[in-house]
Write a sequence for this structure.
């Protein structure tokens, strides 16, 4: 293979080396090296972003490298930069958290980088083998991160459930891949699409393979009925890990979802669209209804995350260029508003698992008005209230569904968004309307400059997208060439 084939792969190579260095550095420095290791991890991710911009962008048309396994295109660049931003914000959240709870940082930061490497492959993969390898690299790192607090029973329980169900879903996905390969004789996404266009398939084995792959991918985005791992994993994981797995793996999974279904399987859309339609509707309904009764904030946000997967799936159901870039926009906004919300949960964790119940937020507007205002903005964004980015992202996916003729799906989305206002505003009520002794019993805000910076950046990005979305929309639309939608 020519050496120039590896040049666009330099960001991934650098990320793998940086992960190994952090792992070894963590062993040598122990807890004393937390801040230097964190700075090294953030610096490595920033350098990776620069390398993606220098080497990972196509000079003209999308380029396929490494024997047809990976593509260098604007679609991949969008998701790679989004994942890098998620990883950087997660490390900033985790540094003070790990210091307070006396856990080492070297292995943690190395696992974040390894998971990011897997997500890079998921974003660039144009062969079902490379996509699966990237998915498993991301998943295995995530399983360990969820169980990182080894002395916490909830952390161990969440990791075991996540691992067992994740392994099952990977088996289902792999079996679906094998059926597709047996029917078409290829694993290359472009060759699959060409074969389906040339001779539309009514092969039941192929249809079963496509449906099984859809089931596997629905698990990875935590869609109903494949969502059962997420509430326990989100609640049990260290809060910075919860923030990370709620956004970065989900964004990478949607990148893979779009590569496969909006790209390779698009000629057979009439056969698989009803499955995704049903999953989107069930996910929005169940996620929002289940969140209503939750008193644990992390568990509430877990069900909220399930509901948001349903909103994003509306763009996949639409099956149009509009629908596809609306998913990209949704993932962009969701990443920042969810990480920001979990960032404030981290700032309230001053004793054990304080800050996780709704009552822990009592009287926050008096104790820390800036933090309360930030949480209010992020909750408004999660609910889809203007002028936040959350409103714009929902507007795009709803419009995509309506333009494609799926009006009832959009109606369900609007109604469930109204339902979500109730459980989001339970926190707002505690922050602003609870006074007296009850307010005094609420958790105190810890001073953590890095975590405060994460919240500030999240709020600013969410508001910027809400007020002036045009540049971000143009960036998202630029990735459609790679899927043959422009």
């Amino acid at each position: 293979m020519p050496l120039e084939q590896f040049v666009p792969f330099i960001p991934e190579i650098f990320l793998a080396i940086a992960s190994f260095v952090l792992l070894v550095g963590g062993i040598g420095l122990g807890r004393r090296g937390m801040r230097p290791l964190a700075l090294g991890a953030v610096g490595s991710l920033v350098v990776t972003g620069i390398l993606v911009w220098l080497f990972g962008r196509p000079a003209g048309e999308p380029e396929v490298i490494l024997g047809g396994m990976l593509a260098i295109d604007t679609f991949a660049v969008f998701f790679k930069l989004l994942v890098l931003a998620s990883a950087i914000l997660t490390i900033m959240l985790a540094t003070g958290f790990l210091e307070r709870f006396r856990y080492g940082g070297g292995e943690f930061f190395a696992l974040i980088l390894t998971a990011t490497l897997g997500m890079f492959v998921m974003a660039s993969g144009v062969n079902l083998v490379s996509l699966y390898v990237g998915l498993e690299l991301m998943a295995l790192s995530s399983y360990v991160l969820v169980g990182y607090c080894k002395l916490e029973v909830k952390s161990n329980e969440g990791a075991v459930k996540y691992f067992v169900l994740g392994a099952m879903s990977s088996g289902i996905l792999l079996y679906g891949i094998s059926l597709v390969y047996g029917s078409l004789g290829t694993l290359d996404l472009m060759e699959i699409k060409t074969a389906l266009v040339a001779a539309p398939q009514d092969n039941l084995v192929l249809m079963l393979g496509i449906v099984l792959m859809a089931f596997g991918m629905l698990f990875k985005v935590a869609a109903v009925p494949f969502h059962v791992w997420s509430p326990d994993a989100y609640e049990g994981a260290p809060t910075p890990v919860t923030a990370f797995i709620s956004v970065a793996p989900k964004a990478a999974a949607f990148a893979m979802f779009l590569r496969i279904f909006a790209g390779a399987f698009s000629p057979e859309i009439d056969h698989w669209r009803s499955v995704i339609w049903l999953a989107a509707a069930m996910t929005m309904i169940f996620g929002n209804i289940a969140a209503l009764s939750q008193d644990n904030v992390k568990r509430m946000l877990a069900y909220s995350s399930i509901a948001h997967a349903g909103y994003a799936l509306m763009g996949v159901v639409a099956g149009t260029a509009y629908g596809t870039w609306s998913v990209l926009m949704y993932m962009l906004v969701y990443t920042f508003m969810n990480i920001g919300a979990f960032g404030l949960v981290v700032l309230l964790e001053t004793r054990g698992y304080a800050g996780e119940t709704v009552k822990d937020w009592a009287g926050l507007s008096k104790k820390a008005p800036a933090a309360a205002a930030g949480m209010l903005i992020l909750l408004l964004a999660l609910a889809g209230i203007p002028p936040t980015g959350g409103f714009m992202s929902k507007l795009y996916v709803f419009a995509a569904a309506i333009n494609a003729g799926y009006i009832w799906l959009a109606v369900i989305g609007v109604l469930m968004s109204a339902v979500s206002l109730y459980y989001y505003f339970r926190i707002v009520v505690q922050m602003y309307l609870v006074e007296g002794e009850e307010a005094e019993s609420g958790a105190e805000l810890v001073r953590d400059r890095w975590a405060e910076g994460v919240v500030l950046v999240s709020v600013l990005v969410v508001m910027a997208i809400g007020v002036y979305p045009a540049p971000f929309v143009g960036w998202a639309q630029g990735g459609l060439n790679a899927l043959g939608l422009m």
User: Anything to note?
Assistant: Residues 286 and 482 are 33 Å apart (CA to CA). Strands lie at 63-65, 70-72. DSSP finds 20 helices and two strands in the chain. The mean pLDDT is 86.
